[in-house]
Every structure is written in C-alpha cells, then in structure tokens.
Specification:
The complex is a heterodimer of chains A (about 550) and B (about 150). Chain A is about 45% helix and about 5% strand. Chain A contains 23 helices and seven strands. Classes of the chains: A mainly alpha (about 550), B mainly alpha (about 150).
Chain lengths: ~550, ~150
C-alpha cells in the first residue's frame, strides 16, 4: 500500500465525525469561515477606469483589493443575482455543473494552485462551491427549504472578495475536469464567476488592458499596423543575417491562399519572436502563398477571460479579415487559449465560415477534415503533415545543443486533444527529446501557473506557487537527462515559463516548437549555419546522441 | 566531535526527518499533504541537509536552498519560515544521547540558520528581478530598437 494512504483509524474517525477539507488550525470551522487575505503577491491590480470606459465595462473607478471598501455599485447583489439567473438559462452546462457535483473530492489534489499553496479553497471542488453555495441559497427550491443543511450562504461583500481572490487563482486549465467522474468542467464555473464579477466592476487589469488594446488596434499589445509590419520586417533582417536567406512575408494581400494568424507575443516578445522567425523560414522553405493581417494581428483572445460577448467580438476579426482578403483558409500559430476559442467556440459563435474552403495543404494535398467547421488549421498539425510527407529538408543535429522536453499546453492538449503532432515534429527536428513523468504530460499536463490572464508581475509569488508542480516535473528530467530546453506551443507559456524556470530550474530555457523547426531547416542557398535563431552557437559536431524517452 | 553529530543524526534520521517535515507542512494553510510535489521537494531538501549536516557543505547548502526557495514564495513571515532551522536543532537535541556536546550542535544549527536566511533573501530578490525582467521581455522588440 502507498505510504501516503490514510490509516484505517483516520478514515473511520473522519466518517464518524465529519469529513472536512480543513485539517490544520481551522479544523473546527467550515471552509467558508476561513478569512480572505490580500497581501503583496497574491492579487492582481484591477482594471484602470479609462480602460473600462474604453470597452464599456461597468463601474469604472480607482480601487485596490486591499481596500476595505471596494466601491461596488448600488444594488450589486441584484446585479449578480440577475446575472447568474441569466447565465443559468443561457448556459445549460453551468446549471448541470452546479447541480451535479457530489463533492467526491476526486479533483481536490489535481489543481496546481492547491498543490503549490496547500490552500483548501484552491481545491477545485471548493472553488466551485464558492459559487455553488450562493446558487443553492438563491435558486433551487429544495435547497432553499433545506437552507443550512445544503452548504448554502448569503451573498455578501466578503463573498465577492473571496470570489475575486480564488477565481483569479484558477487558470481555467481544466486538469481537474480530467479526473471528475461526472465530467464537471470547473473552468467554465470560473469563467462564469469572472463574468459575474465583471458586471460589478471587480476585475483584473492584466486582462482588461489587452482586451481594450485588442478592441482598438487588433492585438493585445496595442501595436499599430505600421509597427506590427516594422517588427516582422526586423525579424526578416535577422533571418537574413543568420542564414543569408531573404524571406518575403506579405501583409494584407488580397487573394493569398492562406491567412496566417498568430499571437502578438510572437511579434513583440522574447522568446516568442524566435518562434516567429521559425514560421517565416518554414513558409519560405515550402513556398507557401500566405499573408499576414495587420488588423487580425492577434491570435490570442483575452475576451475569453472576461465575458462571452467580449470573446465573441474579439474573435470576429479573424473571419472578417479572411473574408475581406478572400483567402481560402486560415493557418493559426502556436497559442493556447486562442485554440480553445477557435476549436470550441468559433464555429458556432461567429460561423459558419461558408466563404472559406475546407483546408487543404497546398504542399501535400492533405485535407484537414477536422477543421471543416472552423476552416482553421493548427501550425503543429500543418508542419507534422509536411514532415510526414517528406517535404522538409531537416538537419536535427543543428539542435544538438538543446536537450529538450515538451510541455503540453493546457488548452491545446485538454482543449483540443492535440498530443501527438507536436511530439512528432519535435522528434524530427532534434535528437534529444525526453518526456516528463507520465502523470504530468498529455491530458494530465500541469499548467504553467499563469494562464488565463493572471501573468501579472505583481502576482509573481502566487504564480511561482501555482507553477511549482510543472517546474518540479521539469526538474526531474533536468536531473535525469540534463534537459536544458523546455519546448512548448503556447505564447502565454513562452511568456510565463521563463520566469518559472529561472526561479525553480535555472539553466532551462523556453523555446517555441517552430523555433526549433527554424533551426533545423536546411534552406536552399543558405550560408553555412553556425548559430541558432537566438544567435547561440550550434553544436553541429555532436552526433550519435540519442536518448529519446 | 563533529563526526559524532553526523553519526547521531544518521542513526535517528527517519524519526528526525519525519518530525521536521511534519512541522514544515504544518506551516501551510490547513497543512500541506506530504504526497504533494511541495511535500516531496521539502522531504528531498531536508534529507540533503540531514545527510550532509556536518559533511559536504555544498550539498547541505543545496538542501537549505531547496527549502528556502519553497518558503520564499509562500505567504508566511520570514521568521516563521526560518524557525524551522532552530526547530531542527531542538529535534536533534531531544533525540541525542545526554553525553553529546550540544555546543557543537548549536553552533552548526546557527550556521545553517544564517545560511537559510541568506538563501531566503536571495530568492526574494530573485522574485523582484523576475518582475523587472518580465516587463522587459514583453517589450523586447521595442527595447531592442531603442536601446541598441
């Protein structure tokens, strides 16, 4: 038996007395009696008033989570009550999730925030209970009669503070839902709770500022079209210096076969820009007829972390631009939540995209029938298909200086079931790929700890706690296989994993998959390659090093 | 005398380790479970400290850093987190034979506590460094064109 299995006597005692998630100083209290505490490092700055005004969100004001009075609007209880009522009607899944949970606790120890903080309110079952307890108090008739027995409670300002704290300690990664025997998706409960909080102006600036930027200029960073082009062209110069090859991306070109959309982090951030260089090399290598839009200049969609309506609005530009440019289909870059929106919501939200064609690779002829509804193909799938058909000239020894492992991004692995394609590509472009422990990868992957718009600098301590389970798994392969490269296919990961690694695993750098593709591609007419896309020396001479997991 | 303490600890390692770990886990809100990644990492760090208590200083330091790094991002006061090290002295002292030289033990525990203090602060500083670096990397292209 496992050394961690509870003792028989402990089980009997807990059954006879009362099961409780509280085991320490608060063991004689109910979970909702635990006080909410805001201090440096555990809360994100709220949205600025001017940002809220710009996007028409309610209750713009200056406030902070540490304030006693949060300046909630008059009648805020009714706003929340009516908001919940409306959403229960609109989203049947929400009603199902609120009613169906039997509090079995299978999800309890699956959340990275619970594992990293030990805070019981970070057990997904209790996080959902934060909302469910209010729902029970106000909605189902039987529960109303059984008040006090059903774990119901009144909606107070303290409850709002608790919601703000814990629904922003959930990254909507859905690891808990993998283990739920009833299939409850706690992420959807978090999404609705955040919507409700936004109705009364309880929000997060790290989410709302990108939303406002995206609403105004088309991308989260607020880059205007000429700067967007300028940045990509400066990457073109870098490519030319490193490889001697001049790639020729086009912008807003009508009649191109494919519209390429990627997160703006790939155009502006480090290390995302190296992934962008990888895309540009790949497209040049295969002679792809593509264009990049300066209007649909963002793949990501922080609307997902605010409200359903905002997500829909920000997403719409993809189809509008595809229609305007008269392309045949859309190719999407490496991103996490972008793909949750595209894969799970876009077709019904803003479709049908009947002005586009079912995607067919112009190089291999492969029909991407899985993208028949959205008309949008994931770059990892596209590249895997190219490699499978032998269309790329690759030299994996160019990545011999990297001993890699792969982090499955939550939204891509659990959200769209893409598990094999990135591994297939990675195996083709490098010689050292080492899997992390089995219960930390694929659909059981641990989140980076900073997704869903909580990668704010002021939240760093909490992020380090939430990311610890992922970092710990990387540490295992670092020790076993001397891994120095954590490869991922998500722009948020490329932003959040570097600090996580610098804190927990110094010496492990973060790479996008297509950065490694760009390193390995042998371009026609290239100058001899001695440096990778980061201008680090390649270890081309190291051959025969192959310890794939 | 030094080697005696390593031997004394070695003979009682499991009991000391278990009590020390439980005390560390009890610092978390409502007690962290030992089977979690945090529990496992603490166990590994603590084990390294005990195995190299009076021996390999580098390995002992690595164990101390492993513990300090975990606590530096937790919401406890530094004094609470660092109290674990004097506590270790008490746990070892309780289990040691009466004839053992406790002055040597005290001196070693003091040294370990001071080292833990340094490591704790280094990790706190790292957090602030990361905040700055993160802002810079988000503006990578902008800074590149304006600075270079």
């Amino acid at each position: 038996m496992s050394k961690y299995a509870p003792r028989k006597a402990q089980l009997a005692r807990e059954f006879l007395e009362k099961p409780t998630p509280l085991k320490g100083a608060q063991a004689d209290r109910e979970w909702w009696e635990m006080p909410v505490d805001f201090h440096d490092g555990n809360w994100c700055f709220p949205g600025k008033p001017e940002t809220l005004k710009e996007i028409g969100f309610p209750n713009p004001r200056k406030w902070a989570a540490t304030d006693e009075d949060w300046q909630l609007p008059d009648g805020w209880q009714k706003i929340i009550h009516d908001g919940l009522k409306e959403r229960l009607k609109k989203f049947r899944s929400l009603k199902l999730y609120l009613d169906a949970c039997v509090r079995c606790g299978a999800c309890a120890d699956k959340c990275h925030f619970f594992l990293g903080s030990g805070d019981p309110k970070n057990m997904p079952v209790i996080r959902a209970e934060l909302l469910r307890s209010v729902y029970r108090n106000d909605f189902p008739m039987v529960e109303k009669i059984l008040k006090g027995f059903s774990g119901s409670r009144k909606l107070t300002a303290e409850v709002i503070k608790e919601w703000h704290s814990y629904f922003y300690q959930c990254t909507e990664c859905r690891r808990c839902s993998v283990f739920c025997p009833l299939g409850i998706d706690t992420a959807e409960i978090t999404m609705v709770a955040r919507e409700l909080l936004n109705l009364i102006g309880v929000n997060n600036n790290w989410i709302l500022a990108p939303v406002a930027n995206c609403n105004r200029t088309g991308n989260h960073l607020g880059i205007e079209p000429h700067t967007f082009v300028q940045n990509i062209m400066s990457l073109v110069d870098d490519i030319e210096e490193l490889t001697g090859i001049t790639v020729n991306p086009t912008f807003n070109r009508k009649g191109a076969e494919i519209l390429f959309i990627t997160p703006s982090g790939d155009v502006f951030g480090d290390p995302g820009v190296y992934t962008m260089m990888g895309y540009l090399l790949l497209f040049h290598h295969i002679g792809l007829d593509y264009t990049i839009s300066t209007y649909a200049s963002e793949g990501g969609n922080f609307g997902l972390f605010t409200t359903n309506d905002m997500m829909k609005k920000l997403n719409a530009k993809m189809y509008h631009e595809a229609e305007r440019l008269k392309v045949k289909w859309i190719l999407g870059g490496e991103c996490g939540h972008m793909w949750r929106v595209v894969h799970q919501y876009m077709a019904t939200m803003n479709g049908p995209a009947d002005f586009l064609e079912e995607p067919v690779s112009p190089i291999t002829g492969t029909k991407f029938t899985n993208a028949a509804a959205t008309k949008m193909v994931h770059i990892a799938e596209f590249t895997a298909d190219l490699i499978k058909h032998g269309k790329l000239k690759l030299d994996p020894t160019r990545n011999n200086h990297l001993r890699t492992t792969f982090h499955d991004s939550c939204n891509v692995s659990r959200g769209m079931g893409m598990l094999e394609e990135p591994r297939f590509v990675l195996n083709a472009v490098c010689n050292s790929f080492n899997e992390m422990p089995e219960n930390t990868i694929r659909e059981k992957t641990f989140c980076c700890g900073s997704g869903s718009g909580i990668n704010a600098e002021e939240f760093m301590e909490m992020r380090m706690r939430g990311g610890f389970p992922r970092a710990n798994a990387v540490r295992t392969v670092k020790k076993q296989h001397q891994v120095n490269a954590l490869v991922t296919i998500c722009a948020i990961d490329r932003a959040t994993l570097p600090p996580l690694m610098r804190y927990w695993n110094p010496g492990v750098a973060v790479y996008g998959l297509h950065e490694l593709v760009g390193n390995a591609l042998v371009m026609e007419g290239e100058t001899p390659r001695t440096e990778d896309l980061r201008e680090n020396p390649m270890a081309i001479a190291d051959e025969g090093e192959d310890d794939d997991a | 005398m030094k080697s005696n303490w390593q031997q004394i600890i070695g003979e009682r390692k499991n009991a000391i380790l278990e009590q020390w770990l439980q005390s560390a886990l009890a610092l978390f809100p409502e007690k962290m479970a030992s089977g979690t990644p945090t529990g496992e990492a603490l166990l590994e760090g603590m084990s390294m400290v005990l195995d190299n208590f009076d021996g390999n200083q580098e390995s002992c330091g690595e164990g101390i850093n492993c513990i300090a790094r975990i606590f530096a991002v937790q919401p406890f006061r530094p004094s609470v987190a660092l109290s674990l090290f004097p506590l270790l002295g008490e746990l070892i002292g309780e289990k040691a034979p009466a004839s053992a030289d406790t002055e040597v033990l005290k001196a070693r525990i003091n040294a370990i506590t001071f080292e833990a203090f340094d490591r704790f602060l280094e990790n706190r500083e790292k957090i602030y460094q990361l905040k700055v670096e993160e802002t810079r990397s988000q503006l990578h292209m902008l800074l590149r064109s304006t600075v270079s």
